[in-house]
Design brief:
- It is a single chain.
- By secondary structure, the chain is α/β, with parallel strands linked by helices.
- It folds into 3 domains: 3-138, P-loop containing nucleotide triphosphate hydrolases (Rossmann fold, 3-Layer(aba) Sandwich); 208-440, 3-Layer(aba) Sandwich (Rossmann fold), CATH 3.40.50; 459-570, Jelly Rolls, CATH 2.60.120.260.
């Protein structure tokens, strides 16, 4: 038989075929061994994955005892010891390092029969050019018209529906509609298109979101991950995966987003309906995200796991309010202990109206300096980075603690140029798209305390020739913003995209060129767009002025702020 490799969708019959062949050979009196990897938590967390445990499949009549649960190096040694006529099966083979491939080939050449189930793409690449028997198991789509190319789960990751591309996309649209209908009917905003945060990768056009800054916060996580050598090392490993957990995960935006980036993702939230929604999205997309519905402090006290990247966004202040100030301090101490590489913290301040009358046993105000002091005292971080409210559209201050000093900002592309593995090449495309959004973070200066060069956001049709008066490098502008611009093409239209916090009152925004008002518009909180016809005779420079009728100075920020510029186009 030599080397036989089984490929196919989940539940296509690969494990059943392997067990059937092992049973047949054992009935002949041949030496048969079943070997699984111990190098990935996705496998080792299963209670049956142990020596003497039973490996089963979706056919309950098919089971086989597991002989060894070992790593790649030990598996290679085991293969080298086998004699001709022995059969060794490696199911869930993707959890072995590709370095095992030469050992498979060498053993098969000596007359050892090898069965491999679900190889990784890197293992298949290593097999390229070698002689082996590839068995690709096909399954019909539920429509019975085409072969299935995708799977979709409804309740767990055990029994999937097999679907062709056409049926998958149609089913996914139906699942998304059902989910959003459920959300619309649920608390805390029943009957409204209104919820706390978006779902990652799901179009929520027309919905009002309490936290519409999730993409901006996600950008900060990605920027930190891109500059952490320890996390990048795991991402580049063909077997290891870095672990991420969002503590207070709500409906799973960040956990899902990090799973898409190659992380082994987890999430914890006390709200049962949030976890229900998060699981529904994860199952439908085949994401093995571990969500738990549990009180944060109880989870931290009972879990012994550590995570490469930990985030907690505006959650611990609620623990403090419900269980006391010291309970919140304990939460943070345990969060820092569970962080291997990066910890992202957002904290609701008691200087905010919503929290001013809460956490009544606090010995002092909880504010920006309080969080920094806490992370410096208990976090054991080698570096803490601060992202002020408003930067890139974030609502609250965000702190990023690194256990090991990260790469300097602006070197993300250097990482990407050095990536060579096929796994990271695929991630490289996703990350590069997101880098476009976070260039201002990568080039960010130490603080937004002075006016900055007007060049840190997309500007089309013009070049800046002066500093922007009333503009800061986190893209906030004040009530009067002025800049000198140089046209690089003829233009007939002006377009401004901006963002204001949802709780800002409506305001008038007026745009003038060379002292001539070209448009004025009343804008509400949230994202807004202002467009107008604008045509001027050819000249070397134009003076741009934007006046906004409302501005405010946030707590611990001396600036007078009106809105965040997302893009400015002269078309």
């Amino acid at each position: 038989m030599g080397l036989k490799v089984y490929e196919g969708l989940p539940a296509s019959g690969k494990t059943k075929a392997i067990i059937s062949e092992m049973d047949r050979r054992r009935s002949f009196g041949d030496r048969v061994m079943l070997v699984l990897s111990n190098e990935h938590e996705e496998l080792t967390r299963r209670p049956n994955v142990r020596e003497g445990g039973m490996m089963g499949c979706r056919d309950s009549t098919k089971k086989f005892p597991i002989d060894r649960v070992i790593g790649t190096a030990e598996a290679c040694e085991l293969l080298a010891e086998q004699v001709a006529g022995t059969l060794i099966a490696f199911d869930e083979a993707q959890y072995f390092n590709p370095k095992i491939v030469p050992a498979w080939l060498d053993a098969s050449e000596r007359g050892v029969d090898i069965l491999v189930g679900t190889p990784s793409q890197m293992q298949l690449q290593a097999l390229n050019g070698a002689q082996y028997d590839l068995k690709k198991l096909e399954v019909m789509c539920s429509c019975q018209k085409r072969n299935a190319t995708r799977v979709m789960y409804s309740k767990d990751l055990t029994y999937p529906a097999h679907l062709c591309d056409r049926c998958y996309h149609a089913r996914m649209k139906d699942e998304e509609k059902k989910l959003l209908k459920l959300v619309q009917e649920s608390e805390p905003f029943p009957g409204e298109l209104h919820t706390y945060q978006p779902f990652f990768g799901i179009d929520m056009y027309g919905w009002k979101l309490v936290r519409n800054d999730c993409p901006a916060r996600f950008d900060i996580i990605l920027d930190a991950v891109a500059r952490s050598d320890s996390v990048q090392e795991k991402l580049s490993d063909p077997v290891k995966q870095p672990a991420f957990i969002d503590l207070g995960c709500c409906s799973g935006f960040f956990s899902h987003g990090m799973a898409e980036q190659g992380f082994r993702s987890h999430g914890v939230d006390v709200a049962e309906h949030f976890i229900l929604w998060a699981n529904q999205v994860a199952f439908s997309k085949g994401q093995a995200i571990d969500y738990k519905c549990q009180d944060l402090l109880d989870f931290l006290r009972t879990s012994d796991k550590t995570y490469d990247v930990v985030s907690t966004f505006a959650t611990v202040q609620w623990v403090m309010d419900q269980r006391g100030y010291e309970a919140g301090i304990e939460c943070f101490q345990r969060i820092f202990e569970k962080t291997s590489s990066i910890c992202i913290v957002e904290m609701g301040y008691t200087t905010e109206d919503i929290y001013r009358m809460k956490i009544k046993d606090r010995p002092s105000e909880i504010d920006r300096q309080w969080v920094m002091n806490l992370m410096e005292s208990f976090g054991k971080f080698s570096q803490i980075e601060f992202h002020p409210a408003g930067e890139g559209g974030i609502w609250r201050d965000i702190f990023v603690g690194f256990k090991k000093k990260p790469m300097a900002r602006g070197r993300v592309d250097t990482i990407l140029k050095n990536v060579s593995t096929s796994f990271l090449q695929s991630k490289k495309i996703q990350v590069r798209k997101l880098i476009k959004k976070i260039e201002s973070l990568v080039r960010r200066k130490s603080g937004p305390e002075k006016t900055a060069d007007f060049d840190l956001f997309p500007l089309t049709g013009m070049l800046p020739v002066s500093k922007g008066d009333g503009y800061w490098d986190d893209r906030w502008v004040g009530p009067r913003f002025v800049a000198k611009l140089k046209p690089v093409q003829e233009f007939h239209k002006f377009r401004l995209e901006g963002w204001r916090p949802e709780d800002f009152p409506s305001a008038s925004v007026s745009i003038s060129l060379e002292g001539q008002e070209i448009c004025s518009k009343e804008v509400e909180g949230g994202f807004f767009v202002i467009e107008a016809q604008a045509q001027f005779p050819s000249r070397d420079e134009l003076s741009l002025e934007i006046l906004t009728s409302y501005s405010t100075s946030p707590t611990n920020d001396s600036r007078d702020l009106s809105f965040v510029i997302k893009s400015l186009d002269f078309l």
